[in-house]
Design brief:
The complex is a heterodimer of chains A (about 250) and B (about 325).
Chain A lengths: L1 H18 L2 H23 L8 H32 L3 H4 L6 H31 L3 H31 L3 H19 L8 H12 L13 H21 L8
Chain B lengths: L7 H10 L6 E10 L2 E11 L2 E6 L6 H8 L7 E6 L2 E2 L10 E4 L11 H11 L5 H11 L15 H13 L5 E5 L7 H16 L3 E6 L2 H7 L2 E6 L2 E7 H9 L3 E7 L2 H9 L4 E7 L2 E6 L2 H15 L3 E6 L4 H10 L2
Parallel strand pairs in B: 3-8, 3-9, 6-7, 7-8
Antiparallel strand pairs in B: 1-2, 1-4, 4-5, 9-10, 11-13, 11-14, 12-13
The chains are: A mainly alpha (about 250), B alpha/beta (about 325).
């Protein structure tokens, strides 16, 4: 009970820290960009259904907006507090480190997912309309983005527990590992959240929407990654040392 | 000599009657950052009462307090809090209250919310009441419902102290606790720490101001360049600090005659004329200051100036380290 109480207190402070800053407004703009684009394309096509639903949802939301929003919230949830010293007031309490990591993951993941799922649904609606296939694709993307948000946030949270350069390394993971290396070396796709998301979409959406190396195992791959990365984040936080003032 | 192993019953009896371990024990603790040593082979034990950790800025005081608070892993040696290793064991925070030097506090929280957060994270049964009590102790009930971001440095400091006190820990670690406090708040805080110490708590606070430590602490640890320069009763350390070799600059009506007269004094071991000034090296500060006027009078010399040349705290610390 007292552990739950502590976790809810940490979650509440994390939510206020993440929501009370300019970054939330910025992230709203970032997540709103695909919606705006979808609206413009819809208006430009005179109401006819454009053919750009899947590439837009994947290229814009899965590849660009999701990692970016998750990177910002994931590193801010823990890394900012470790950097500015406010984390010391939480770290010096008799609570296991998983009880710090999990509420931060839940809050940052939920914020990321809320923005991205809303963005996916609206963008999908504007681009694809209300046909059953299009609704199916949009919902598949929304579910995949929901799960992918938590996995991405877990990665960036673990990075910020491990290093003060979590933001840069997280950006490197998203741009270099998932962007460049995954194209050149298909083996690296097994450790790519983007591939898990594609796998989830491919297993939920009408056939032929997307292909992924993890295929229909996207759910399992994402779940395993989420658990493993959360454990790594907890372990790294337990070994975290403050940077001395002297 | 060998000692026969105790039987099970004897062992239990011995354990039951064994005194509790000292609240804080450091045994040959060093901490390195790459090639830089921040804390160098420090050993001490601290019991109930107030102990001052004195040293200039950059001496390693914060590193030492972070080691004690389990926020840094010792590179070598052991740090024990109530007999348990401080590193990698969050349960020690039931026994410790830490007031860090850094001001960082979640600025959007009110003082009351900040202290209540500490109480909830400590798992206290009634966090609200505990927070109210702690805020009252540090005289912060009035502004408690304002956001911490708008507090002065002293108010923030007192709020952090309230958060550290909220679970009434037996050990309190404070890093430069008087920074930013006005004289009234400082006196109030000193009274508070004294009353907590008299209730049996172990309090260790760091400071780079000798007078602060002298007024409050029963014992002193002097740290300089990561090394323990001196430890023990503050009066003894004060004496060591005072009665170390000093060099005085003297101006008088006849420096040459005065130099000869000084050389007959037991506290003086050197005198030279340099740039029209008489520089006198003495082995004992207080012995020389008692003798200087008498020597000048007996020699018929009028004194214009007598000033120690190396009385900075830095030189005091260097001397203490060099004599160990």
């Amino acid at each position: 009970m007292s552990q739950l109480n502590a976790m809810s207190a940490i979650g509440s402070v994390t939510a206020r820290a993440l929501l009370g800053r300019r970054r939330t407004l910025l992230m709203l703009l970032v997540a709103g960009a695909p919606v705006l684009l979808g609206l413009l394309v819809r208006l430009g096509s005179g109401g006819a259904r454009p053919r750009s639903l899947e590439p837009t949802l994947e290229g814009l939301l899965v590849t660009t907006v999701m990692p970016l929003v998750a990177l910002v919230f994931g590193t801010a949830a823990l890394g900012s507090e470790l950097d500015d010293g406010t984390a010391i007031h939480i770290l010096t309490k008799p609570i296991p480190r998983w009880a710090i990591v999990i509420p931060k993951l839940i809050v940052a993941g939920a914020l990321t997912a809320a923005l991205l799922v809303a963005s996916t649904l609206l963008c999908g609606l504007f681009l694809g309309g209300t046909g059953s296939r299009e609704i199916g694709i949009t919902l598949a993307f929304a579910i995949a983005v929901l799960i992918g948000s938590f996995v991405y946030v877990a990665i960036f949270l673990a990075l910020s527990a491990a290093t003060s350069r979590g933001l840069i390394i997280g950006l490197g993971y998203s741009l270099l590992w998932e962007g460049l290396l995954a194209g050149a070396l298909p083996g690296t796709q097994l450790l790519s959240v983007r591939e898990y998301v594609r796998g989830i979409v491919s297993s939920l959406a009408p056939s032929g929407t997307l292909n992924s190396v993890v295929g229909s195992q996207g759910f399992i791959a994402a779940a395993v990654a989420l658990v493993a990365i959360t454990a790594i984040a907890t372990w790294r936080l337990a070994l975290h040392e403050v940077r001395s003032a002297e | 000599m060998t000692v026969a192993p105790a039987t099970g019953a004897e062992a239990v009896a011995v354990r039951a009657s064994a005194p509790p371990p000292p609240p804080i024990v450091l045994d040959r603790v060093s901490r390195w950052y790459g090639n830089v040593v921040a804390v160098n082979d420090i050993t001490f034990e601290i019991g109930a009462g107030i102990t001052g950790l004195l040293g200039p800025n950059g001496a390693g005081k914060s590193t030492l307090l972070h080691l004690l608070a389990g926020l840094l892993r010792p590179s070598s040696g052991s740090v024990l809090i109530e007999g348990r290793p401080a590193w990698h064991d969050p349960s020690i925070y039931r026994s410790i209250g830490l007031v860090p030097e850094r001001e960082a506090v979640h600025a959007f929280l009110t003082g009351r919310q900040f202290v209540e957060l500490a109480a909830r994270l400590q798992g206290l049964p009634d966090p609200r009441a505990a927070a109210a009590r702690a805020l009252e102790i540090v005289d912060m009930t009035g502004p408690a419902d304002r956001a911490v971001g708008g507090y002065s440095k002293g108010m923030r400091q007192r709020t952090k102290i309230a958060a550290a006190l909220v679970h009434e820990p037996p050990i309190l670690l404070l890093d430069e606790p008087f920074n930013g406090m006005d004289p009234r708040q400082r006196l109030h805080m000193m009274d508070l720490l004294r009353s907590m110490a008299s209730a049996g708590r172990t309090i260790l606070f760091s400071s780079h101001i000798l007078e602060e430590v002298e007024r409050l602490a029963d014992g002193i640890l002097v740290i300089h360049a990561g090394r323990l320069a001196a430890s023990g009763d503050y009066r003894e350390i004060r004496r060591l600090m005072t009665d170390r070799p000093h060099t005085f600059r003297v101006r008088s009506s006849d420096d040459r005659r005065l130099a000869s007269a000084f050389m007959a004094e037991p506290a003086v071991f050197g005198a030279e004329l340099r740039d029209d000034r008489l520089m006198v090296r003495v082995s004992e500060f207080s012995g020389f200051t008692r003798a200087v006027a008498r020597v000048a009078r007996d020699a018929g010399v009028r004194l214009h100036e007598v000033a120690p040349t190396d009385d900075s705290l830095e030189s005091v610390f260097e001397y203490l380290v060099s004599r160990r």
